[in-house]
């Protein structure tokens, strides 16, 4: 079984779509992307914001997202619906993560550059000589103070 995300279901104000001769159903007012062919009409009554995936023609719709399911002749509809939900929720979660990362980058750019004070060369040389060039920092934190130990 292969599930492919086709795109977002969108409201359409097209007036050139007549009721389906094959099914007798009228245009729902919604379309889904069909690639180069443009948007395909969705026939009949359906809720694009339904809590469960819905089969509309040869596509499934869930949370205003449209999916095509292929090679699923022996797969029960409940399993297909569950897999579509999983795919939709994962995509939403990934998008949320990307949005948070972009917001963090934008906030980072707004912050003034934090520059720390440089340790004078004489102090660095003194510590290097005092510790014979071998220093291991161990930082112990407590409620009252911060202690640095040098181990040889």
| Low-confidence spans | none
Instruction: Output the strand order for the largest sheet.
Output: 1-7-6-5
Helix-strand topology string: EEEEEEEHHEE
The major β-sheet equals:
4 strands, antiparallel
Number of separate domains: 2
Q: Which structural class best describes the helix and strand composition?
A: alpha+beta
Shape: elongated
Rg (CA only): 30 Å
Binned strand content: 25-35%
- Proportion in helices: 25-40%
* Total DSSP helices: 2
Q: What is the averaged pLDDT score?
A: 78
How many distinct beta strands?
A: 9
- N- to C-terminal distance: 63 Å
Description:
This protein has 152 residues and is α+β, with helices and mostly antiparallel strands. It has 2 domains: 2-109, no CATH class; 121-151, no CATH class. The protein contains 2 helices and 9 strands, in the order βββββββααββ. The protein has helices at 77-110, 121-130, and strands at 2-8, 10-11, 27-33, 39-43, 54-56, 59-62, 65-70, 136-141, 146-151. The strands form 3 sheets. Strands 1-7-6-5 form a 4-stranded antiparallel β-sheet, covered by helices on one side. A hairpin with a 2-residue loop joins strand 6 (59-62) and strand 7 (65-70). The protein is elongated and about 90 Å long. The termini are far apart. The mean pLDDT is 78.
């Amino acid at each position: 079984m292969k599930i492919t995300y086709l795109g977002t279901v969108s409201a359409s104000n097209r007036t050139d779509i007549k009721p389906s001769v094959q099914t007798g159903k009228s245009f729902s007012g919604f379309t889904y992307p069909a690639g180069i062919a443009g948007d395909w009409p969705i026939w009949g009554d359906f809720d694009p914001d339904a809590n469960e995936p819905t089969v509309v023609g040869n596509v499934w719709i869930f949370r205003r997202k449209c999916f095509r399911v292929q090679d699923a002749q022996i797969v029960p509809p409940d399993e297909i619906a569950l897999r579509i939900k999983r795919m939709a929720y994962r995509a939403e979660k990934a998008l949320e993560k990307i949005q948070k990362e972009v917001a963090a980058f934008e906030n980072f750019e707004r912050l003034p550059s934090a520059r720390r004070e440089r340790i004078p060369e004489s102090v660095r040389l003194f510590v290097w000589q005092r510790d014979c060039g071998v220093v291991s920092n161990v930082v112990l934190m407590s409620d009252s103070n911060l202690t640095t130990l040098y181990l040889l």
